[in-house]
Amino acid sequence: MRQRIATRVGRSLVVVETKDITHFSAEEKYVTAFTSKGQIHFEATLKDLEVEFAEEFVRIHRSHLVRRSLITGLRWKAYAVSIGLAGTSIRLPLSRNRASFIRELLNAAPANAQSIGMVSHIAEPSATSAQQHAAH
Length: 136
What we know:
GO terms for molecular function: DNA binding; phosphorelay response regulator activity. By secondary structure, this protein is of the alpha+beta class. Helix content is 26%, strand content 42%. The chain has a single domain (4-123), classed as CATH 2.40.50.1020. The chain has helices at 46-52, 96-108, 110-116, 127-135; strands spanning 4-9, 12-17, 21-27, 30-35, 38-43, 57-61, 64-67, 71-77, 80-85, 91-94.
């Protein structure tokens, strides 16, 4: 596993320590690595990064990998699910087919979840919102 990710920005070489990366997001053939200090764009695939960083990052969506230790909980809004990142106001979409895996991940580490404020359950949508959705 790499300790750093480097990319060219103009004539400069920008280097980010992988330990500082909170999450990766993909768009077309580029990936953006996010840190608390900013972000860098580089050419890669999330699939390759998912394999390389499997111990520390988990795929939550076709476009996002998140550092496992930073997942703070799951939130339903209507019928969409999102996760939060510890220490930030960032919420990222969680694909429905990954929701049960992430819930299991949160439940598997209750001591760790308690220490960083993870929510170990998914709040189900209210009956009213389910009725409204069914009416459409």
